[in-house]
Structures are given as C-alpha cells and as structure tokens.
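Thread: Modeling a multi-component assembly for a lab meeting

Hi all, long-time lurker, first post. My supervisor asked me to bring a structural picture of a complex we are working on to next week's group meeting, and I have zero experience with this. I have the sequence lines for every component (935 residues in total). Could someone generate the structure of the whole assembly? Inputs are pasted exactly as I received them:
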Amino acid sequence: MSTMKNGPTPSLVREGAAELSGWTDIGPLDAIPPLRARTVHLRGVAIAVFRTADDQVFALHDRCPHKGGPLSQGIVHGTSVTCPLHNWVIALTDGAARAPDEGCARTVPVRLEAGRILLDTAS
Amino acid sequence: MTMIAPRRRRLVVIGNGMAGIRAVEDILARAPAAFAITVFGAEPHGNYNRILLSPVLAGEKSFADIVTHDRGWYETNGIELIAGEPAVAIDRAGHTVTGAHGTMRPYDVLLLATGSDPVRLKLPGADLPGVVTFRDIADVETMLAASETAGRAVVIGGGLLGLEAAHGLSKRGMAVTVLHLLPGLMERQLDPVSAGLLADDLRRRGLEVLTEASTSAIEGAARVERVVLADGRVLAADLVVMAVGIRANCALAREAGLACGRGVRVDDAMRTSDPAIFALGECIEHRGQTFGLVAPIWEMAKVAADHIAEVADSAFAPSVSGTRLKVTGIDMFSAGDFLGDAGTEEIAFRDAARGIHKRFVLRENRLIGAVLYGEARDGAWYTDLIRDRTDIAALRDLLAFGPAVAGAPAAAGIEALPDDAEICGCNGVSKARILAAIAEHGLTTLEQVRARTKASASCGGCAGQVEALLALAGAAPAAPRMKPLCACTSLGHDAVRAAIVSRRLKSIPATMRALEWSTPDGCAACRPALNYYLLCAWPGEYRDDAPSRFVNERMHANIQKDGTYSVIPRMWGGVTNAAELRAIADVVDRYAIPSVKVTGGQRIDLLGVTAEQLPHVWRDLGAAGMVSGHAYGKALRTVKTCVGSEWCRFGTQDSTAMGIALERMTWGSWTPHKVKLAVSGCPRNCAEATIKDFGAVATEAGWDLHVGGNGGIRLRGTDLLAKVKTEDDVKEYCAAFMQLYREEARYLERTAPWIERVGIDYVRARIAEDASGRTALAARFAASQRHAQIDPWAERAAGAEAHEFRELAVLA
Ligand code: SRM
Ligand SMILES: Cc1cc2nc3c(=O)[nH]c(=O)nc-3n(C[C@H](O)[C@H](O)[C@H](O)COP(=O)(O)OP(=O)(O)OC[C@H]3O[C@@H](n4cnc5c(N)ncnc54)[C@H](O)[C@@H]3O)c2cc1C
Ligand code: SF4
Ligand code: FES
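Re: Modeling a multi-component assembly
Sure thing. I ran the full set together rather than chain by chain. Output:
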C-alpha cells in the first residue's frame, strides 16, 4: 500500500516496516476540514490531500482517471471520493475507480505526525 | 362418571429458546388448559428473539427490545419457569427430568428444544480469555465489554453469523478482520459472484476480509493477543469470535438413550424414538437433515403442537426457506439449490453499475434455487415459486425482473398467503397481525407499520411484502415500491424526510445514526439530499454542511471541464445598467477572464475564472452592488421577464417590475432542484413563462399563474395554477408554491416531474383552493428566506471558507 493510514485499522502486523525519506510538512491537520480535501502543488503537479471523518489522511494526484476531473473538489465519503465531473467513485486508499469503472489515480504517500501532515515529496 | 376433574397432563419442556416457547404457544392455542407446563431453561431469563442478537451487538437494539416473553408471560399462562438451571438427566422409565440444582419434575409428555452449540475449533489457545462464540446474550455481553476499549477483533468464519458479528463489532468501533477458510464468503448461501460483491461491500464498510485464510493458533499471555494463520501471517487481536458453525445439542438425549444421529432423531410427527418424548428446533435430525433457521422451526412447532395437543395428525415436511444477511444496507437473499448441477439451467442477471447480481437455477422449467444480491426485495416471490414448483416457462424471459415485471402483480403472492404466514421472520410478525394493525390504527405507510408491529424493523427484507399488504388493505396505492434514497439506506426519500421532521433529527450524522445508515458518512448521493432536507426542515437552526454540497454549491460557481469556474452575477429580472456593465467589464480586464457570454437566462456569464480568483472577482462585483446569481445551485435561478407595459405596445401589466419583485422575494432560496421563474407582459408570452417552474402571464384582468414547466431535456408546458388579480396575489401564490415544492418534492426532482407525480389537482387544492393553507405556506417561505437571503459571495469575499480557494502548499 502506498498510502499510510493512522488511527485504528485492521492492518497486518508487520515487522520493521522501513520508512521512506522525503517527508515534507505541508501543514496542520486542521487546515483541511473533515470530509474535505485541499491541493498541494508539488513541482507543478497538483496533489489532492484528503481528510476523512475519522481523521485519516490520503493523497492522490488531483486528476480523475476518467477525464482528469479535480478529485479535490469531490464529495468525500468513507475512504472514497466521488469525482465532481461525472461521479466516478475513487478509493482514497489505492486510487482505484470503483467497478464497473476502470482506472486508477496515482497515490502519494502521506502521514500524520503530531497533528502535522507529512507528504512524501521524494516519490 | 367420576366427580373428580381429570388431572391435567404434565408437559415438561427442556430449552427455553425460540423453538421450545413457540411450541408452547402453539400448544396453548390448541389446548389452553390441557397441560401443566414446566420449562427448564439453561439461560437465566425468559425467552428472547435470538435472531436479533445481531442488531443488539450492532447497537441498533437493546436486550429489552428483543425479549419476546418476559417472566410475566409465564405467570399469566400458568407456566413454571425454571430458568438458570439446565436439565441434566432424563429418567425415561420413571418419567422425570432433573435439573443441575436437583429440581425434579415428572412428565407425561417431554419436549426437547435444546437448540445447538457453536462449534469451537480445537486450536492452540482457543480457550484463552477473549475468545468467544456468538450464540446467546451472554456472548453478546462479553463482546460488548471487549469492544468498549475499541481495539481489534478477529472473526473466524465468514458465514452469516460471522459477518453479522463482524458488522456489529465494527459498528461498535472495533477494527475487524474476518477470516474465511474458503475463497467465497457465505458459501452456503452465495455463489462466487455475489460472494465477491459482498466481500467488496464489506471492505467498503471498513471490514478487512481475508479469504482462504486458515487459522493455526491463537496466542497471548493472559488473554488473547494475536491470531496466527497457517501461512505465517500474524494478526493482532483483542477479541476473537469463532463463528464456524453449529452442532445440534443432543448430549442429554443421547445419555437418555434416545436415537441420535447429528441430532435427536425425530419422525414426521416430531416424535423421538421414545413415543412420550418429542423434540424440535436446531437439536433435531429429521430424515437426515438438521436445521439452522427459524422458518422450518415454526413449522416444526405447529406439527409438534398438533400431536402433543392431539388435535391433528399433521406431518413435518421441510420446505425451502430463504436466508438474508442482517447487515444494514446489504441486500441479499438466497434460497434453495443456488449452485445447480449438470442437469440444471441457469439464468443470470447483472447490473454492475448498481452492484446487482441475480442467479436463478432451473430444472425442467421449475425454479429450484435463487441468489439475489444488491436487490433482494423479491426474495419471497422466488421462494414461493420454488416451494410451489411453479412452471415458469412463460415467465422465463422476465424472471430476473421480479413479480412487478414478470406478470404476477406484487400483491398476488401476498393475497394467497394464509393469515398466519410469517411476513417478518426477524420479529415474528404474521400477515394477520399486520393487517389487523393497519385496520385498527388506520396505518398508511411502511414506517407506521414498522413502528406498530416491528415488521420490517430489523433486516428490512420484508419491506416489500409489508407494502404489498398495505396495498392489499387498500391503505396505500399499489404504487411502485419505494426506491431507497441510495445504497446507504433501505429507506426512500419520503420516509427519510418524514423521519427528520417527526424525530426531530437535526444533523446529517444524527439522521444517519437514527435511520441506521449502512455507511459511516453516506455517499455523494445521500449527503446532499440530507443536507437539503435538514436545511428545509430547520431553517435558521440547521448549519449547512459544506462537505455535503456538490462542488458547484460549495464553491458558489459552476465548475468547468478544465477545473476553472464560471461566475454569473444576479441581474434582477434581466435588467442591468451602465454601472453594472462597467463593473463587469473592469472585472473581466482585471482578472483576464477569457470568455464573456450572455446566457439563456438573461444575464452575463464570466467563464474561465480560477478558484483563487473567485473571492476577488466576487469582491469587485459586490462593490458594484451585485450578488450571486446562484447559477450553480439547486436554488432559485433566474427570473426572466419581457419589457411589458412600460414599453411594449401590447403589454397589459408591468412584467419587468413584477419579475424583479418576484426575484427579490425568492432569491437565495434552496430548493430540491433548480427553480426558474418568468413573467410575460401579455399572452404573447415573450418571456417563455409557460416552460418555467413558475410563470406569470399578464392579462387584461390580472395574471395567469402557471406551474411545472420545463425546457431542457424533456419539454413540458405548464399547468394553469390559478388566475389572480393583484401583484400581491402573484407574490403570495408564488411564495406558497415555492414552499410546497420545497417541503414535499424529493431532492433532485424538478417541479415538472413532481407535479406529474402528485398531480396538478393536488397542487391547486393546496394553493388555489385553500386560502389559509396558502397563507401559511407563504409565511413559512418568508420565514425561511430570512435566513437564506445572505449573499454567499460577499461572505466569501470577506474571508469565509478561505481554505476552498487557497492551496495548502506549493512545493518545489
Ligand atoms: C450558462 C447557461 C447556458 C448559456 O450560456 O446560456 C447554462 C449552462 C448550463 N446549464 Fe442550463 N444553462 C443556461 C440556461 C438554461 C436554460 C434556459 C433558461 O433557463 O431559460 C435551460 C432550459 C430551461 C429549463 O431549465 O427548463 C437550461 C436547461 C438545463 C438543463 C436541463 C434541465 C431540465 O430540467 O431538463 C441542465 C441539466 C441539469 O440541470 O441537470 C442544465 C445544466 C447546465 C449546466 C449547469 C451544466 C452543468 O451541470 O455544469 C451548465 C453550466 C455551464 C456553466 O458553468 O455556466 N441546463 N439551461 C444558461 C444559464 C442561465 C443563467 O443565467 O443562469
Ligand atoms: C446471532 C444469531 C443470528 C441469527 N440470525 C438468524 C436469522 O437471521 N434468520 C434465521 O432464520 N435464523 C437466525 N438464527 C438462528 C436462530 O436463532 C435459530 O435457528 C433458533 O434460535 C433455533 O431455535 P432453538 O429453540 O432450536 O434453539 P435456541 O433458540 O438456541 O434455544 C435453545 C435453548 O435451550 C437452552 N438449553 C440447551 N440445553 C439445555 C438444557 N440441558 N436444559 C435447559 N435448557 C437448555 C439453551 O440455553 C437455549 O436457550 C440466528 C442465530 C444467532 C445466534
Ligand atoms: S446546452 Fe449542454 S453544453 Fe450547452 S450549456 Fe447547457 S449543458 Fe452545457
Ligand atoms: S473526470 Fe472524473 S468522473 Fe469524469
């Protein structure tokens, strides 16, 4: 999984998961209201950073796999976002479009530390 | 001729559960005073509805809600309840039963209803504290205690019980992983395709589902800490639920020397190998078959009661019964042989976009099995087809579309059902009870029946049948069945709306909680609808929820295909002036706006504005006195006018001034769908008022008021609402119409389809023919407008919602 979650999730216990370098502080969690997203431009590319109701954060390239719609402007629900242009539902966890649609938005590693959002700018 | 009353025969029942007590009820109904009854129950309370342990675990019901027979019931019926004392011995020669604390009771007739025991896997660590099964209220209490500290739960077994346990624990805040040995969940009820859809749905609800996962050990020091899989994976766990199957509880019978196989063997009369002893429920084996659902058990109870009370010589012949999963929002049904074999044919129907899969197995033109996933309301109809061995040759082409399409009217099946037919299996509500409640209390809606009788209150699977009964009773039109608002709920728009008002629900989370939404925070379909319904129900009190607004309404501008926005300021009645035009021109220059267009709604559109520019553009337009035109909203859009009597040689009234007055009154109002008005100065109707939601056309005598017009995709001309005299009349009718539409139309239903649904006569009756009703509607509209007429652009230009218009960061 390219996106790290925080909070209680039923994830497998992994031994010694190595952490990548290149984490950049992009602001406090509070800068994004729950169930909303904001964009970050990283070397000219728009990245959408999402916050779920239970304060998990996820980041995707801000381009819908359908016709490039700005996912940051969609309605966030659970760990999905509905694209504002033609209602494709994209999973925040892995960027995949919900069947029957097919396609994938690129994910960017992001995590929370002490209330700050850290984005992996090396990826 | 003896003077002594005949001694009442002694009936002892072992097992105070669903089968035992149902049989007692059936016996009392057949022979009210024939027996002196004693019930031994291992559990320390009266009888409860075991099926509903799942909703109790999920927090949707309390234990009190599911108790079906409290101690008072036993007293009233003269039944001796020995609760909390399991029977430990049967002396068949002496005709006595003895309990664990030594209580001994003689019997003439003995009834065994000991149910079944959950299977416990013999794994290392299986007896650690924190490893539980799911069978009775004590198990639920253990799970609830464990869930208090949140943590992680591992459920072993992806069958009906395991998934219901997993859903409940997840709703209680635990992180839940389901382990299933086979590739497909619920393999006893689902084919591989629907099993896959179910796994996806559960994952979407936040459960982790691991299939082909074999557990090899449970580990922990003082209590469970983790689960080890055969492939070496390790899962952290604070609670482990084993839900891997049940085993008939026949130890006592076996010790007493009764013939037992996988359960206590009974004949068609439910009699064991000892003629004085009957058995029923999950503890039995009948013709090699054991049972795990209540429907056949209710049949057994009738047969056993017939024989024990000696009133009829009936025979138990198990018929097909269907299974549903009681996980809110998951609609599935399965019955019969749904896999088939070489000699069967198969019909499959799939609508991937709506997550629907149906599979039917046929043998020689008879339906022998069905699986429905995603849309299961017709389960009962298919069960009937299977049970009755109906020849379906004629139905074949349309079989997958259910009774509504395949010919049989929805209520036909219902009519044919006997009065005591169980409609709601979860709550044990019969057809007769529902019909009686409808008649007695004049019920007309599903919600009301649910509140009175509990029918359809649990899994909701029988909602369609309850509606058919309402139709049968003449209480409701045999209308198409309610369509759920979206996949997150089984309730339709009207039911949700009514509940918001009647239960005084004041926020989206509160509504979702109270109405048992199946998703944690809804979806892009229901959230905007709920936001509107709440806004309409509680004007001034409800705080608009921006994250539940579609982007256009959140940004207060129309998003374009390249991600920029368009800006349309209000141009009252289509009238403008040099100052406004100059301000617009300045804005276009200042922000290098690429495109300026006159819209079909008599105003000016500035296209290609970036999100960052929006507040600045709005500030500058605002400085010249302009406000948002709401061209982006399910809201009052434009009021088109013609020049009217001020200039036009045909004009009879001042349509421009009338239009401006209407726009001043209605702007800012949020509505189920967009609302457009127009006012023409004479019947030539240059403002096209007869294809608008509300149109006024001037005549010599006053105004003709028209409603329900629609340009766009499906052209519809208006219906005449009324002819009125004065401008104040026009305003009052308009306000009343707006409010009726706001309060009663469904979200995203424009006035045209709404009026086609309710009928123009209804709208006339509420507005034209009911003067005091009209005044009240208009007053409610005015009241809500006091909170709505705030220019959203001005608020944002002054800094509100700034995060929407600025990037979080720009990184090199
Ligand atoms: C800008 C405008 C076209 C123009 O350049 O003239 C326009 C533009 C859009 N219309 Fe329209 N409609 C515009 C007048 C109309 C009219 C004419 C009118 O209002 O007299 C109609 C037919 C009248 C009617 O509504 O009955 C019209 C019928 C539609 C429909 C079909 C509605 C229907 O019920 O059948 C849609 C689709 C929808 O709303 O779902 C639509 C949807 C749209 C959307 C919002 C499409 C979208 O979802 O993004 C377009 C937004 C473009 C934008 O970002 O600005 N537009 N649209 C007009 C704006 C008027 C205004 O000043 O606010
Ligand atoms: C969580 C859950 C959900 C379910 N959901 C559904 C569903 O949706 N649909 C459906 O059709 N079925 C469902 N079932 C199955 C249904 O509850 C059973 O089929 C039904 O309860 C069986 O009735 P019974 O009387 O045979 O057994 P039980 O209801 O278990 O009753 C047996 C009783 O006998 C007692 N007993 C056992 N031994 C002794 C003894 N020696 N002395 C005294 N008392 C004794 C037990 O303590 C128990 O109280 C569900 C079951 C569970 C656990
Ligand atoms: S007619 Fe179609 S293309 Fe033109 S503005 Fe309306 S929705 Fe867009
Ligand atoms: S661009 Fe996202 S759904 Fe079309």
